[in-house]
Amino acid sequence: xxLQTILVATDFSEGAGAAFQMAKKLAKSLxxxxxxxxVINQKLVVRxxxxxxxxxxxxxxxxxxxxxxxMSEFLARWQTDDLEVESMVAVGxxxxxxxxxxxxxAVDLVALGGYGRTSGARPLEDLFFGxxxxxxxRLLPCPVLCVPLDKD
Length: 152
Prior knowledge:
By secondary structure, the protein is of the alpha/beta class. Helix content is 50%, strand content 20%. The chain has a single domain, classed as HUPs (Rossmann fold, 3-Layer(aba) Sandwich), CATH 3.40.50. It has helices at 14-30, 42-52, 56-78, 94-104, 124-129, 132-139, and strands at 5-9, 33-41, 85-92, 109-113, 144-147. A five-stranded parallel beta sheet has the order 3-2-1-4-5, sandwiched between helices. β1, α1 (14-30) and β2 (33-41) form a beta-alpha-beta unit. It starts with a strand and ends in a 5-residue tail after the last strand.
């Protein structure tokens, strides 16, 4: 398989770190580029706007800036090892944005952490409709690598 680009979706969790580590191993051995993507969840933006009684667009720049800071911290923590890593921040439903961006960039592989920020008891929505990873697997024609947390 000829891999040119690996998309790693991150919510900045340990699970996303595990996926990034696996992507790094593949990228090193295959000379592949990594695209690191964080999606600001549109549902949370709407809820926050309702709570703050503000328009969502009024604080989206702040959320994007905060996500960029977290992206830098994530990359510093998990180290890029001099690999080519491009970072992106999008807004939308995570599974949809991951799928859209993966298709738009024509990535060869998507890597996701097996457990994100909502690890443990799964939200009711996940039980009925599937996790972000399960939804991405259903939407994409390219391989999706779900990386579990190392329990050591």
